Amino acid sequence: MFEIGFWELVLIALVALIVIGPERLPEVARTAGRWIARARSIVSNVRAEVEREFKVDELKRSLIHEETADQFRRLHDQIRGLETELRNVAQPPAAAETPPVAEPDARMPAPAPAEAPPVVPPAAPVTPAPVAAAAPAESSKQT
Predict the structure, then answer these.
(1) Are 35 and 28 in contact (CB under 8 A)?
(2) Is residue 53 within 8 Å of 61, Cβ to Cβ?
(3) pLDDT tens digits for 84-135?
(4) CB 20 within 8 A of CB 28
(5) Tell me: the pLDDT tens digits for 57-70?
(6) Domain encompassing residue 87
(7) How far apart are CA 3 and CA 6, in angstroms?
(8) Where are the alpha helices (H) located in the chain, listed in sequence order?
(9) Looking at the 3D structure of the chain, how many domains does it have?
(10) Where do Low complexity bias regions lie (predicted)?
(11) Cα(26)–Cα(138) distance, rounded to whole angstroms?
(12) Is 33 a domain residue?
């Protein structure tokens, strides 16, 4: 960060000794050391917080990636299932269930064509004969 070498530090210490004086120099050095320690702790806390945020963001991204990958896998499996169902539906069921029919033997004679029954013209309508009124039946009992 700061590129301060050994000779720069010696120069700063000499100026501080002349300006502050030998009596107050130890007290000022302690105070400066405390400030530097506080600054370092603040910087390390900020650095740790930033690293935690990066880790949380990375975990969120990986979680989202895993969820989308899982959804993609499920959709892919559903598509495969639908494709197989579609193939099964497209295949004619008769061809799948019945065995193939054997070719007729060339030596066997072909069956004779069936003769059609003779056509009969419709008959004239028959009208019923009138019925006479029936007489009361007499009993054949004799006394």
Answers:
(1) no
(2) no
(3) 988 888 776 555 555 566 665 556 666 666 676 666 666 666 676 666 655 5
(4) yes
(5) 999 999 999 999 99
(6) 6-92
(7) 10
(8) 6-20, 25-90, 93-97
(9) 1
(10) 89-100
(11) 163
(12) yes
